[in-house]
Every structure is written in structure tokens, then in C-alpha cells.
């Protein structure tokens, strides 16, 4: 089946681009002597995971929900890092996975939470493996790698029902970098502070088997992984306009796009309407403050090339408004009603989450359909 | 089961508030002698639809996707308006529904599309019923009610394979109104232009059985429905912070909220972290340009009342950052790790779409779980 014949809106995944992205990251991390623990929150698909393993250099997975943990454990993954600060209400389900044979690591960043986890571990008869989250860039959660709280948290993990598994960081601040030189510095800062936290804990007598860092930008621009045991990244599998805006990839590296149909025009305003609205693209406006603002996405032809500078400048639930972007040069084509277009996403994780399956394409043809999970 | 014991994040639906919202709109529209064609794109649930019918005053449904049409047709709805400009690629599926007994109306706003639809209707051996979309506020699609194109579209519907079913408008511009007086004017403008378009078509010899108008704000502030045969609205079922900001409802009328757990703090910054991020709330920032910007939502206690002026000011995929809103007065409480909060959404349609089920509550207890559909 050809792209022209697919229902709209649907989510396209270009397998050749996916494979190129996976190989590029695998080569980079392996070249630094590192190991990848891919974050499955972007793809949520055992078929994409199979491609990841085929590309090599991975050990275990990172998940953002227990639904992902359940899904990938059922698909054969055993070594799972649940990389969202634990809530005590989730421990029963995690204990169930552990009893079934899963090796799950949780994360936390306070002694208070470590004590709650330990107490529930004793009640449930399990020993939870906890990584201490370290704050390396002030953007979200985590303990200060240089602070006294870090040692208190580790001490609180030294009791029945819990064990210290290591430390982890997420350099989400890399998304605010303006140049790739800044991302490179951020990557080194993340590595240095993660290793510093681990060394302080070791000096205090704690074993720290795992030193886990990551984010797609810092993974891609890491120049050293000394002292790091694993790198987590997710969005690099698909890439997106935000990553292209950061300089992490080119637009030709974006593996997913939404297929839409032209449903009408408001010619006096230069508007072309499509049936791909925010329900298909998500409400993510990640390029809003980048050098080029693509609205809700960049409009491509069926060949995967930008189409006359068109962007999805407006979106209602099932309607999108395509207009000429401020960055456009050259001629903008007049699209016919019924014509199909591809729309590249700002943020791959958000757009993919709007769909239950990937229409896997290669050379302009549908070659497979891959299901994806969702929920919590 | 009590709210404290539910998994997080999950989507709560307060049935008493839902019923109050449904009754209020039903009473208002019936008081004006009108009939409601509820838009199911907000709730996508046959259980909510059953509540809607129980509230009375409805005839048929409005859908935004063919997946909704299939789901609600299977649940017993026959009279269906598909209120997104038709794409020719969808006509085969619609013909299939029609052959199965569904009475589906499609919409279009160009003679070109009317001819494409007619041609496919002849090929498929069906007669598609088309409403002409009228543009009453310049915000999206539709033909000018005063323009010559309107008569050309109607003429293009006068051929085998298609028939003119009427006219429809969507006053989405009401979302930009600053006062309820402006919404009232917008409602009257919508009614007047819809009726004007219908009268011009009738004067040209066309039958115009349906004159369909709608949007939650204009439905709620309509003072007359003269000449209108039906009113479409969807978000009023749940209401949300955007509607409250418009003056369409109070915050106590918001029937859905996301239950989240506190997972940590960054006390030096005044941040409290929760496991409800944008995957749970959606990326919708609908209150950004209203008088009060709630970030990604307003934080409530389990009793459904605002909690010390806290808002969800930041959101990553599965992390939310709660901080004191700029509008807050009084004291902001210190939340404990593991504690649960409810977060009211900016936009009910977008937040509900992130979940597969409603946890239906009344009096602080879970009383039911209602599934909801998704996809296209």
C-alpha cells in the first residue's frame, strides 16, 4: 500500500531513518566505551525495541510508567529502571513485578521517601533497589551532588526493605541550550556531577554499582563517559523538530510524521486546512522559543521533504491550519483538496503518544504496522 | 474505594458535577425551544452519553472522527453529524456506516469538494448528505454566508451521489471573547449568520432542513435560537479552566480532574513534584492568555477545592512541578511525599484524551469506571 492510500490522520514511521538514528547513537556511545539503557517512553513499542537491540550496545531499558514496565517485561525485558521519582502507592505493583522475576530499579531524592520505601519493602517482604536522583542542572528533581542531604539519603537506604543501587541524573536543562557547544558543556557537567555524587557516596562507605546519566542532547554530545556505567536516551530513536532546532539532528533524521489530508482552504487568508489537528500532533509547542517556530509542525510532501515553507500554524482538535512559515523562502504551492501531506512533529514523544500504532514505511510504501502501548 | 487509594495518575470524573452541567445546558437550550446535538468528542464514552440522554433535550450526536462514529453507532446512535470538513478518502467508510443503517451527515465548504463527494457517491451507490459549513467569525473553515460561493456549493450538491442536508456553523471565535457580553453578541452573530445563509439558499430554491450552530460558550449564552434547528456543544459536559476563565462556568463546575501523587520537593525553589506531567494533563496551555494563567492546571485537594493557590506551572512527560500561582493569596501548604492531589485541567477535551477510562467518583469515593474510545 502506498502513502496516498493510508487513512488520515495516521502516524508514519520511516524504518530506514529509524535504523540510521539507532546506529548513530549506538556507534557514538560504544565509541566512548559506554552502554545504552534506552528510554522506551518515546516509542512504547516492542517492535522498535527489537530494532534498538538489533542496533546493539544496549543493556536493559528505562521506563516512565509502570504500564511500560509491565508491557516490556511481558515482552522479555528484565532489567528495568523506572526513572520517575517513586510514589509509595506504586510499590505493591513493583513488588509484584519483582516477584515475577523483573529486576526493577526505582529512583528517589529524599531520606523521607527512602524510609517510606524501606518500610513498605519490609511489609511486602522484598528489597527495593533505589537509585538516588542527582540534580545536575536545576531543572527538575534530584539531590545536590555536593550537599549533605545526599549522604542522609544513602544512609536511609541502608536498612531492611531497600538497598542503594546507584545514582542517576537527567540533564533536561540541555533543552535550553542555545548552541551545540553549550550542550557539550552540559554533557560534561552532567557526567562530572554524577561521578562526583557517586564518589562522595563511595567515600562514605556505600557501594554505588550504577552511575546512570542521560538525555538525548547530552548523550549525543558527550565527549567522555568516564565513571559512567550507562547512558539513557529516548527521543533520538525518532528525533523531532526540537532536536533539529538544538542541532542534535537534521530534519532529514526525523523518523515519524503525521499523514494528513487537505480538507479545504480560506484562500483570502492563505490558509489550507487539514484533518490533522492537535489530537494528532499533540499540543506540544516545543519550537515556540527556538530560532524557527514551526507552530504545531512542519508540512512535508509525501517524499519527506519540506513543502514550500508550510507549517501547521494553528490546531483545533481535529483541524489544522497550514500557512507559510515566517522562515519560508521560495514559492508556496497550492494544495488540492484531498491531497495528502506529512507533518513533522515538534516533540516525538508527545505526537507518538496520540496514536496506538505506527504505520511503518520504507520507500513510500507501507511495510508493516507496529502497535504501541499507553496509559499508566 | 476512596480517592486516597486510587493509582496515580488517573482521571477522575465527578458524577454529581457532570449531571449538574448536563441539566444546566439542557434546561437552557430547551428554555429557548431548542434541541441539543451533543458533541461526543469531549467525552468519547457511551456511559457519559447515557447520562446526556437522561438529562434530555438531545437529538443525535456530533462526532469529530469516524472512530467516534463507529463506536457510538455500535452503541445505538443512528443520527450522526461528522463535523470536520470531509476528506474524500473517508467516504468509503462512511458509505459502509450508511449501508449498516447510520444516518450520517458530512460537512464541506467548497463546490470542488461537493463534486468530489458526489462523484464518489455515484461510484459507491450512495447519496451523501452534506451540510455546508458557514464561516461566522473568521476563525477556521466555512463559506461566507453572504458570498456567491455559498450558492455555487449548494448548486454543486444538486446532483446524483450527494444531497444538501443544511448548513452548520462553529463559533470557535467565542474562545477569544473577553467578557460574557461579548460571548452573548457572538452567539447572536452566529445564529443570525447561520439563519441568513439558510435563507439565501432557500431563496435560491434549495431545501435546508438543518440549521446547526454551536460551541459551548455560544450555546450557553444564546438568547435566541430562532431559525436554528439544533445546537452543538461538547465541553460543557465536563467544563474546564478555560471555560471558567471565559465566565461560562465556575471552577466548582469542572467535573474532571487528574489525581496525582507528590513524589518530591525542591524546597529552596518552592517546588513540589508530582507524577502528573503532560502525558496526564496534555500539553494544552489554554489559560496562558486568560486573566489567570494556571500553567498546566490548578491543584486541588481531594475535596475538590483549590489548594493554597498551587498550580502545575511546569510539566515534563511524567513529572509535574507545582508552585504557588501568581494569583494566589493566603498560605500555601507544605505537601507530604505520597500525598495525593487533584489537578483541574485547562482543556477538558485534551486532558480526557490522555486516558482510556474515567474513575467515576461521588462523595470522595469511586463508584464506577467508564471506558472511553480514541483514535481515528
Q: What does the model show?
A:
- The structure is a homodimer of 376-residue chains.
- By secondary structure, chain A is of the alpha/beta class.
- The first copy, chain A, folds into 2 domains: 3-9 and 249-371, Lyase, Ornithine Decarboxylase, Chain A, domain 1; 16-237, TIM Barrel (Alpha-Beta Barrel).
- The first copy, chain A, is 30% helix and 24% strand.
- Chain A has 11 helices and 16 strands.
- The radius of gyration of chain A is 22 Å and the shape is elongated.
- The interface between A and B is large, with 59 and 59 residues.
Q: Which key phrases capture this entry?
A:
homodimer, 376 residues, alpha/beta, Lyase, Ornithine Decarboxylase, Chain A, domain 1, TIM Barrel, 2 domains, 7-stranded parallel beta sheet, 6-stranded antiparallel barrel, 11 helices, 16 strands
Quick rundown:
The structure is a homodimer of 376-residue chains. Chain A has 376 residues and is of the alpha/beta class.
Amino acid at each position: 500500500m502506498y502513502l496516498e492510500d493510508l487513512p488520515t490522520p495516521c502516524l508514519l514511521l520511516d524504518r530506514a531513518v529509524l535504523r540510521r538514528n539507532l546506529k548513530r547513537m549506538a556507534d557514538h556511545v560504544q565509541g566512548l566505551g559506554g552502554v545504552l539503557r534506552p528510554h522506551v517512553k518515546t516509542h512504547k513499542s516492542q517492535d522498535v525495541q527489537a530494532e534498538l537491540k538489533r542496533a546493539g550496545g544496549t543493556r536493559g531499558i528505562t521506563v516512565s510508567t509502570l504500564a511500560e514496565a509491565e508491557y516490556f517485561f511481558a515482552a522479555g525485558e528484565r532489567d528495568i529502571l523506572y526513572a520517575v521519582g517513586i510514589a509509595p502507592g506504586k510499590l505493591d505493583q513493583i513488588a509484584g513485578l519483582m516477584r515475577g522475576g523483573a529486576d526493577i530499579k526505582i529512583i528517589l531524592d529524599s531520606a523521607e521517601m527512602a524510609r517510606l520505601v524501606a518500610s513498605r519493602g519490609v511489609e511486602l517482604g522484598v528489597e527495593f533497589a533505589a537509585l538516588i536522583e542527582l540534580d545536575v542542572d536545576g531543572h527538575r528533581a534530584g539531590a545536590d551532588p555536593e550537599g549533605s542531604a545526599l549522604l542522609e539519603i544513602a544512609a536511609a537506604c541502608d536498612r531492611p526493605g531497600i538497598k542503594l543501587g546507584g545514582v542517576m541524573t537527567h540533564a533536561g536543562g540541555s533543552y535550553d541550550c542555545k548552541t551545540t557547544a553549550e550542550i557539550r558543556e552540559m554533557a560534561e557537567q552532567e557526567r562530572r556531577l554524577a561521578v562526583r555524587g557517586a564518589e562522595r557516596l563511595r567515600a562514605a562507605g556505600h557501594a554505588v554499582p550504577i552511575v546512570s546519566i542521560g538525555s538525548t542532547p547530552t548523550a549525543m554530545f558527550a565527549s567522555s563517559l568516564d565513571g559512567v556505567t550507562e547512558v539513557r536516551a529516548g527521543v533520538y530513536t525518532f528525533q523531532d523538530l526540537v532536536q533539529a532546532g538544538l542541532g542534535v539532528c537534521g530534519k532529514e533524521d526525523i523518523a515519524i510524521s503525521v499523514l494528513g489530508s487537505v480538507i479545504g482552504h480560506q484562500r483570502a487568508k492563505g490558509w489550507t486546512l487539514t484533518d490533522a489537528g492537535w489530537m494528532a500532533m499533540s499540543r506540544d509547542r516545543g519550537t515556540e522559543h527556538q530560532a524557527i517556530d514551526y507552530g504545531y509542525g512542519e508540512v512535508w510532501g509525501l517524499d519527506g521533504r519540506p513543502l514550500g515553507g508550510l507549517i501547521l500554524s494553528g490546531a483545533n482538535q481535529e483541524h489544522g491550519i497550514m500557512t507559510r512559515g515566517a522562515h519560508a523562502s521560495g514559492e508556496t504551492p497550492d494544495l488540492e483538496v484531498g491531497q495528502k501531506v506529512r507533518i513533522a512533529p515538534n516533540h516525538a514523544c508527545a505526537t507518538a503518544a496520540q496514536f496506538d500504532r505506527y504505520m511503518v514505511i520504507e520507500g513510500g510504501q507501507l511495510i508493516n504496522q507496529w502497535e504501541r502501548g499507553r496509559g499508566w
